[in-house]
Amino acid sequence: MKEEIKKWIWQHQEYPNFKYDKSKLTETISKIDYSRGILDGISKLFEPSDIVNIEIETLTDEAINTSLIEGEIFKRESVRSSFRKKLDKDFDGRYDKYSTRATDNLVEILIDSNLNKDALNLERLHGWHNCLFEHTGYDRLSKIDIAKFRSHSDMEVVSGAIGHEKVHYKAVPLEKLEDDIENFLRYCNESNENIYIKAAIAHIWFVIIHPYDDGNGRIARAITDYILSQNTSSTKFKLYSISTAISIDRAGYYTVLDNTTNLFLNKEFDLTPWVLWHLNILNNAMQQALRNIEYLIQKTKFWDIHRKQALNERQIKVLNKILDMGSENFEGGLNTKKYIALTKVSKATAIRDISELLEYGCIEQVEGTAGRNIRYKVKIPNG
Q1: Distance between CA atoms of 330 and 1, rounded to whole angstroms?
Q2: CA nearest 225: which of 254, 250, 195, 247?
Q3: CA 169 to CA 261: how far, in whole Å?
Q4: Which residues make Cβ contacts (< 8 Å) with residue 49, sequence separation at least 6?
Q5: What does pTM read for this prediction?
Q6: What's the CA gap between 351 and 348, in Å, rounded?
Q7: 3-class DSSP string for the chain
Q8: Alpha carbon 375 to chain centroid distance?
Q9: Phi, psi for 164 (deg, rounded to 5)
Q10: What are the tens digits of pLDDT across the range 208-236?
Q11: Domains of the chain, with CATH numbers?
């Protein structure tokens, strides 16, 4: 009888006793601890209302990007409004015109995964899954099982054009699913492994099991959030978004998943490359959070100086757009054409608005630009 070819990680004789070399992870974990310490220290400098705004923007990034990784696009104002209804005591939801049932549901998952410290169980996973698909019940043309695990074994992750499909992964068969989930939940709830390593292992393990018809990636990232949130108090959110960092390296994400779950590519049954990639992504997320907070500090200092100046709504909108993303990230600097694109005004109005901003000292000319190529940047206060 022909021996079965073992291609997928769950077919390995040592599964699910994953192995990884901790000695190769310690340096990156130290970087994460350092980034986390700075992040915690800086956050204490803000007023509670400012922290709420940072949390809302961070969670909004997380919601948008965990969906974007799977090809689902949400409008930022819709997600932000859904979060504000839940977290901003000054927001009157009666006048909300942006949030949708889908964004409200997505927000429920992220709030629960970040704040609810109770043990992870089946009911909770199914509740998250229900939130993802309650409004459709379909994956494109196919009706899917909602709030329960898949009812078939032939679950494959496939890409490519019709007739040229590539199978990237075949999930754990149905007869193994129940035991696998039981072991997985026990690990999430009881393991004393370093929390950053634990989050990486939980992420990949849930993807390996692939228990749902759809939504496995988003729920895996919610589980990652849940585990990482164990490091925070019961009333505070993480101030970094790991899904945003993953989305930036989306190609790398899928490559490392393939290289880990395929035994032809991972003959040694070694999760070290995956865990190291995940740790680096986590550190990148914290570094971006620190940059975002620095932009907020710059924005606060800027408006402390310019708040009393008679700026119109257009000028304020453009300045906030640049300050929110960081002046150095506003590619090419500000010019008349970009001002028109952002405000939908005439060229004459744009020129007049920009001249006033120069006069008020809100912006300054970029060195080395002039004439038709003239560019401006927001003048960031020193100190």
Answers
A1: 64
A2: 195
A3: 7
A4: none
A5: 0.88
A6: 5
A7: CCCCCCCEHHHCCCCCCCECCHHHCHHHHHHHHHHHHHHHHHHCCCCHHHHHHHHHHHHHHHHHHHHHCCCCCCCHHHHHHHHHHHHCCCCCHHHCCCCCHHHHHHHHHHHHHHHCCCCCCHHHHHHHHHHHHCCCCEECCEECCCCCCCCCCCCEEEECCCCCCEEEEECCCHHHHHHHHHHHHHHHHHCCCCHHHHHHHHHHHHHHHCCCCCCHHHHHHHHHHHHHHHHCCCCCCCCCCHHHHHHHCHHHHHHHHHHHHECCCCCCCECHHHHHHHHHHHHHHHHHHHHHHHHHHHHHHHHHHHCCCCCCHHHHHHHHHHHHHCHHHCCCCECHHHHHHHHCCCHHHHHHHHHHHHHHCCEEECCCCCHHHCCEEECCCCC
A8: 33
A9: -130, 35
A10: 999 999 999 999 999 999 999 987 765 58
A11: 9-293 (1.10.3290.10), 309-378 (1.10.10.10)
- Tokens representing 301 are 């200092």
d(CA 255, CA 159): 13
* 154 phi and psi angles, rounded to 5 deg: -85, 60
Amino acid occupying residue 375:
R
Q: Which of 68, 62, 69, 103 is nearest to 288 (CA)?
A: 62
pLDDT digits (tens, 9 = 90+) for 265-277: 999 999 999 999 9
Tell me which amino acid residue 64 is: I
Dump pLDDT digits (tens) for 182-196: 999 999 999 999 999
Tokens read off for 350: 């744009």
Structure tokens that stand for 298 in this block: 């710059």
pLDDT digits 0-9 by tens, 99-129: 999 999 999 999 999 999 999 999 999 999 9
- Count other C-beta atoms under 10 Å from residue 353's C-beta: 20
Q: Is the pLDDT of residue 345 over 80?
A: yes
Confidence (pLDDT) at 383 = 58
Amino acid present at 153: S
Six token digits for residue 281: 């992504």
* Long-range contacts, 190-196 (Cβ 8 Å, 24+): 194/29, 195/227, 195/228, 195/230, 195/231, 196/29, 196/32, 196/228, 196/279, 196/282
Residues 33, 34, 37, 42, Cα dihedral to 10°: -140
Tokens of residue 337, six digits: 């054409």
Nearest to 355 by CA among 369, 334, 373, 341: 334
Round to whole Å and give the CA distance between 336 and 350.
6
